[in-house]
Amino acid sequence: MSRLIVISNRVSTPKPRSAGAQGGLAVALSAALREYRGIWFGWSGGKTDEFTGQINLHREDGVTTATIDLEEQDVDEYYNGYANRTLWPLFHYRIDLAEYDRSFGSGYERVNERFAETVTPLVEPDDLVWVHDYHLIPLGQQLRQRGLRNRIGFFLHIPWPPHRLMVSLPFHQRLVRSMLAYDLIGFQCAEWLESFHHYITRELGGTVFDDGMIEVDGRRVQTAAFPIGVDVAEFEAAMETQDARNAFETLKRSLEDKKVVIGVDRLDYSKGIEERFLGYRRFLEENPDWHGKVSLLQIAPPSRGEVHTYETIRDTLDGLSGRINGEFAHVDWVPIRYVNQGYPREGLAGFYRASDVALVTPLRDGMNLVAKEYVAAQDPADPGVLILSRFAGAAHQLGEAILINPYSKDEVSDAIRSALTMPKAERRRRWEALIDNVRREDVLSWRHAFVAALAGDQVETPEPEPETGEVAV
Predict the structure, then answer these.
(1) Are 258 and 295 in contact (CB under 8 A)?
(2) Where are the alpha helices (DSSP H) in 7-76?
């Protein structure tokens, strides 16, 4: 049986199964690597004064990880620069925040080359290679240039922007053409797949076939949507831990008989937290009868502190939450509890179970697994209500949530009131439909579907392209 080589920007070193839960994606990939005797390759998160290509091998719980350190300049240009100041905002429709700097593109290309140089000796002829996310879009082409003829797949964990936005990226054609080196390209949902197809036909003059195959200049590549999910069994097991029970009791006790609306997001402008606060404020303005009876718990751990736009987000939310609390709070009631720290999975599971409503309002999101985690954590006899942005990839699957436009304060306000007053029978009906999808299309089915497609019939593999010396982004 072929091995599976997983390549991602960062590597999550597997923990012993008795050491506690990991994230669902790490669990799914670790399971695949154990099954296929594979290797997980990527950046360690550490820095080195000079890149040497030294690989640090580690084996834990049946999974082999291989990591490299990067130079400070690599991290600044590749990770903080091109990945998170150019591609991330552009792919989340925030062209106003995208920064285009020649050094960013050079660093992005250089690190992809370094990944290719160091991982190539680890790959055996029959291995399947699975590359992940926007940090490594051109990696497949770099691997082909080094002679790899293996089946190579790529999965994008974030949205693919519309054609009219994608063309604002300098050297966008070179970046997209580099993707034609893959045998399989996967997206989170049909909307992002259609956006990619539109670019292929409009910009590259390619052809899209009914089965998702694309053809550009004689090269054929399979494309498809593979909705990612959560590890439901693992999340349900987390609910049975003492940490989850403690978190549940702590939140319930601290709010006494008040209703709880929860939001859990990494601190990022794509998550719509500012719009969420404004919608909640509108709810408080329009529903004075709910004053003192409901609180919003917003958990937003900081991220990417090296990128200045994230400092701005934090300052904005600090000020907005303070103004809302100052305007509406009483001596015995605070409308918003805004927490800038992360919690272990077991603690989050307890918070989800204790919350009557989840407010998941990204302005644009590849999928959004918080929505699915909230559903998985609910008490079947008395479940909470999910309010979900129409612009999250999960909205294509979770149609029984209350779907809203997060830009509309009125829609957010109306949805909160509807969720808080929803009869138990309707809550249970909606939840049963939601949990059916979450269980059916979980992270393991996503992994099985992608690997099965990647291991399919061989397709024509392009000859390695000559080195040109040009920046391919």
Answers:
(1) yes
(2) 24-36, 72-74
3 state DSSP class of 93: coil
Distances in Å between the Cα of 380 and the Cα atoms of 236, 343, 419, 429, 449 are 12, 24, 16, 10, 29
Tell me the CATH class for 233-439. Answer: alpha beta
Distance CA 321, CA 302 (A): 16
- Tell me whether domains 4-229+445-454 and 233-439 share a fold: yes
Across 109-123, b (16+ Cβ under 10 Å) vs e yields: bbbbbbbbebbeebb
Helix (H) or strand (E) holding 385: strand 385-389
Give the distance, in angstroms, between the CA of residue 107 and the centroid of all CA atoms in the same chain.
23
- Angstrom distance (rounded) from CA 230 to CA 238: 13
Q: What is the DSSP string of 334-401?
A: -SEEEE-S---HHHHHHHHHH-SEEEE--SSBS--HHHHHHHHTS-TTS--EEEEETTBGGGGT-TTS
pLDDT of 14: 61
pLDDT digits (tens, 9 = 90+) for 437-472: 999 999 999 999 999 999 984 434 444 444 433 334
Question: Cα 3 from chain centroid?
Answer: 25
Residue 86: DSSP 8-state: I
Over residues 358-391, the pLDDT tens digits come to 999 999 999 999 999 999 999 999 999 999 999 9
Active site residue 157: yes
Q: Region 89-108: what's the mean pLDDT?
A: 96
Q: Catalytic: which of 58, 157, 163, 396?
A: 157
Q: Which residues contact 57 (CB under 8 A, 6 or more apart)?
A: 64, 65, 66
For residue 259, the SS3 value is: strand
Strand 56-60 versus strand 63-71 pairing type: antiparallel
The β-bridge partners of 360 are 388
Domain ranges of the chain: 4-229+445-454, 233-439
Residue 92 annotated in active site: no
Task: Output the CA torsion sign for 95, 96, 98, 101.
Answer: positive
pLDDT exceeds 80 at position 46: yes
Distance CA 130, CA 62 (A): 19
**With the C-alpha atoms ordered 341, 247, 389, 387, is the resulting torsion angle positive or negative?**
negative
pLDDT in tens, 129-171: 999 999 999 999 999 999 999 999 999 999 999 999 999 999 9
Q: Identify the band that residue 28 occupies on the pLDDT scale cut at 50, 70 and 90.
A: confident
Q: What is the distance between the alpha carbons of residues 261 and 387, in angstroms, rounded to a whole number?
A: 10
Topology of domain 4-229+445-454, CATH: Rossmann fold (3.40.50)
Strand 219-225 relative to strand 184-187, pairing: parallel
The residue from 183, 265, 365, 442 that is catalytic is 365
